[in-house]
Amino acid sequence: MARHLIRSDQTLKAIRPGDPRKRISDGEGLYLLLFVGGGSHGWRFSYSYHGRRKLLSMGTYPKTGLALARQMAEEARQTLAEGIDPSHKRKDDKAAVRATWAAEDRVTKGLPPLNAFETLARDWFEVRRGSWATSYSQKIIERLERDVFPWLGRTPVTAITPPMLLEVLRRIEARGVVETAHRALENCSQIFRYGIAIGQATTNPAYGLKVGLKRPQPKHFAAITEPDRLAQLLRACDGYAATHVVRAALKLQPMLLLRPGELRAAEWSEIDLDKALWTVPAARMKRILVGKRYGAPHLVPLPKQAVAVLRELQPLTGGGKLVFRGERHHDRPMSDNTLNAALRAMGYAADEMTAHGFRATARTILHERLGFSPDVIEAQLAHSVRDSLGRAYNRTEFIDQRRKMLQAWADYLDKLRLDVNATPRGESARPKRARRSDSSGQPLRH
Question: In terms of pTM, does the model score above 0.70?
Answer without folding.
Answer: no
